[in-house]
DNA sequence: CCGCGATGCGTACATATGTACATATCGCAG
DNA sequence: CTGCGATATGTACATATGTACGCATCGCGG
């Protein structure tokens, strides 16, 4: 019998995880189903329950992947800064640039925050994420300042995604300057 | 025939809306169903489709109610401040107190942010909310400072809800002082 | 080369869900 | 008091969903 082409798929698991984030970004956790993910990942439905015990397990692992990826990029971007001024500029970039604060990432963050409230394992992941961010900032700034900057990055990113006239680069730079205590022209 | 007690329920609609927020807070939008809401509001299932055309309509209206309520409280708290120093303290309160930044409200905010990304009507609601907050802050601070404070309130509230050792009142006060430019002892 | 554990695949099934609808009851304007 | 429009209520039903399971097929160690 001519059986249909059967694939050998070494990284199918990873592809499912990526597809999960895609589906969550597009439909929200509320609209995320095994079947939708399977369609995006281009795998049969049976693969879902084979690779992941339950949908919650899948979501948990996908969100963990997201946090690790984003935290790594964050750290990387800050580690590339040599001087304090460069570090400030890196912070501005993280808020303003289309590298991390992309609509997709913001959206996924909201979904993660909401979901994590009901999955203890993810609370740990979020704490780890925040810890890494703070550690990266503390390589350039005092602990208190790092904390303030971390929160400000979060708040500004969110508000910029809602605002009809988002704060521009200059304004963000001025705010960072106030928090770091470095003198800078205020608008 | 002795018919079961049939209730006359003038504010049933409002009760359903409140129940919706309760259910969302407990189960997330993903776990919000007509039947769960009906159970919490103590109304029969049929009432759901009678008072609200669809589940999405219901969620949209409930989130609008949330935004209006929270924005009103925010404005009220800031309007009560007479001096600039009192305004700063009000901002600190909004972050640290158990009045607005309660776990429930934070959680509902995450759900709203995520949900609003897919419902255009709610984007307007969020913009209105942010506008009101900013207006309230601008009664005491310059526009740029108001923007920074608004974002910082958001970011600090979120991070405080995740952090194992949340920033204390003193630390929050110091951050606010930096943003407002008012001199204050730094820790 | 061969066997076996890992992986892939389709399908079945109980359940939960959104929504429609027929009917019953109530408040109140005239 | 009397309709009548608004509201209440229970139920039906098509559909989507999570998960289980049996079987097919493959990679690879011995």
From TrEMBL, chains A, B:
Q: Which UniProt keywords apply?
A: DNA-binding, Transcription, Transcription regulation
- What InterPro entries does the record point to? Homeodomain-like_sf, HTH_TetR, Tet_transcr_reg_TetR-rel_C_sf, TetR_C_31
- Stretches assigned to the HTH tetR-type domain: 10-70
Protein name as annotated: HTH-type transcriptional regulator RcdA
Q: Which SUPFAM superfamilies match?
A: Homeodomain-like (SSF46689), Tetracyclin repressor-like, C-terminal domain (SSF48498)
Specify the domain of life of the species encoding this protein: Bacteria
Q: Which organism is it from?
A: Methylobacterium frigidaeris
Q: What is the lineage of its organism?
A: Bacteria, Pseudomonadati, Pseudomonadota, Alphaproteobacteria, Hyphomicrobiales
Listed GO molecular functions? DNA binding
Q: Which residues bind DNA?
A: 33-52
Q: Which Pfam families does the record associate with it? A: TetR_C_31, TetR_N
Annotated PANTHER family = HTH-TYPE TRANSCRIPTIONAL REPRESSOR NEMR, TRANSCRIPTIONAL REGULATORY PROTEIN
Q: Which Gene3D superfamilies match?
A: Tetracycline Repressor, domain 2 (1.10.357.10)
